[in-house]
Amino acid sequence: MTGKIAFQGELGAYGHQACVEARPDLEPLPCPTFEHAIEAVRKGDAEFGMIAVENSTYGRVADVHHLLPESGLHIIAEAFVRVHINLLGVRGARLPDVRSAMSHTVLLGQCRGFLREHDITPLTGADTAGSAARVAEIGDYSMGALASELAAQIYDLSVLARNIEDHDRNTTRFVIMAREPDFSRRGPTGMITSFIFRVRNIPAALYKAMGGFTTNGVNMTKLESYMVDGNFSATQFYAEIEGHPDDRSVQLALEELDYFTDRVRLMGVFPADRRRYETRRNSSQD
User: Which residues of 24-45 are buried (b: 16+ CB within 10 A; e: fewer)?
Assistant: First the structure.
């Protein structure tokens, strides 16, 4: 029996593409929301969840960092998916026929230049693949969808324009979540440790908490803050560092962090995707 991996969106969404590329051995399970995808893993309807966390053009995916800490799940891997956005239309349509294009708001924001150039009005849809399905259902030459080529295949649409994203390195990062953590060292590219924390209510607490990573030579690759329960005075941080919790340098850094915080929770230990460092090298060459 084939295991399943849950993702947000319809078949043909970029989350579906991520599942196919990262875990082709598993059956993709479409879910209407990230909450449903997480719940599918919690309930055992899927072994893993493929959750989008950030895009190189649009930034972090809204609300996901609020969902992850309370999910009860653990990050066991990451996957970087090169997002090629395509204008899809019904069979027989041509690019000049299209007057409006439907997609998820995140995708609409990633190809503003193309839409302006061709005088195409953006229409907000629930998700990318769902927009493609809707365009196929309506059958109007003047309406297109912004989605993947996989969606074009699934919903029998024509690709009217390929790779129309504003930035040629447009990439979405996903994390793969499971019910149980995996602390084993895996892969040749090094390990990433992710955690959340809240600093104590003392002067310069965040500055002091970060000092342990500097003095112990631990590279912090991500630090993001967000409010808790809509409270301006309660801030939680999500962080990722290079290394494994068993590394002595990481142990010392986390011990110092613990001293200046009132809450630390390990979110996951996982191998770095090789494309993480490819993206870094490309950025340094610009």
Answer: eebebbbbeebeebbbbbeeee
Q: Return the SS3 of 205.
A: helix
Residue 113 and residue 157: Cα distance in Å, rounded?
23
How far is residue 153's CA from residue 159's CA, in Å, rounded to a whole number? 9
Q: Which of 172, 195, 213, 260 is the catalytic position?
A: 172
The whole-angstrom separation of Cα 48 and Cα 163 is 30
Structural domains of the chain, with CATH = 4-82+170-178 (3.40.190.10), 86-161 (3.40.190.10), 191-285 (3.30.70.260)
Q: What confidence tens digit (pLDDT) does each residue in 133-185 have?
A: 999 999 999 999 999 999 999 999 999 999 999 988 889 999 999 999 999 99
Considering only CA atoms, which of 137, 178, 6, 156 is closest in space to residue 91? 156
Residue 75 zone, left/alpha/beta (φ > 0; ψ -120 to 50; rest): beta
37 to 13, 70, 205, 272: CA distances (angstroms): 14, 14, 36, 23
174 as an active site residue: the answer is yes
Give how far the C-alpha of residue 120 lies from the chain's centroid of Cα atoms, to the nearest Å.
Answer: 27
- 57-100 pLDDT, tens digit each: 777 876 777 788 889 999 999 999 998 999 999 999 999 999 99
232 is an active site residue: no
| Residue 284 CB coordination number (10 Å) | 7
CA distance 121 to 108: 10
- Of residues 7, 114, 174, 197, which has the active-site annotation? 174
Tell me, what's the pLDDT at 285? 47
